[in-house]
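Hey team,

Filing this mostly as a record. A colleague (T.K.) asked me to run one chain through the structure pipeline before their review meeting, and I want the input and output archived in the tracker in case anyone asks later how it was produced. No errors, nothing strange. Just documentation.

Input sequence:
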Amino acid sequence: MIEPDGKSSGVKKLIDRIRDEGVHSARAEADRILTEAKAQAARTVADAKAEATAIKTEARAAMEREQTATIEALRIAARDTGLELRSAIMAAFEEHVRRLVTDVTTDGSVLRDMILVLAGRAAEELIQDKDAVILVPDQLGDEVSAKLEEFLQKSAVAFSADVLRKGIELIPSKEFQGGARVRLLGEDLEIDLSDEALSAMMLKLLLPRYRKILVEAGQ
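Output structure:
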């Protein structure tokens, strides 16, 4: 058996040492790379979770803003719809009152009685020795005159007949549809019981109460 000489033994030891150091270095490098990879993976996961959380938070905030805006839009729409509906109801009520007043004040018998009242009051309080006319709706002039003449011929109320005989003339007018007006000639004075004036007076009394009813009903 041949004993290895000292030189060969030293070379072998050197090779073994280089090999061992290389393996150790490779393992250390592999461990370092693995550690860094794990750390990077952990950071990536953390960043992804943070981004997902931020996206969720922003999405929830956006949804809440959208919901709030939708609710506000619905509230405004409901309010506007209620106001429009209330306005439409009020307008319909006003038109209904005006129509009723016009219907009543275009009745020949009613208009005849109004004229007699106007003539009596005007003669006592306003006209006296002044010139005046009673305006009646143009389309009802002949009918009212006939009814008034018939009434005066049959009536025992001599005062009213006497008032009309003193010169309170009936004048057809296109200014209104129903009722009548007493107007002093040459003076800015008038007793207005036209359908327009009567409607305005009635609505002034009725509208606040009707509006209150609508408000209470909408609460």
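Quick notes for T.K.: The chain has one domain: 37-219. The longest strand covers residues 132-137.
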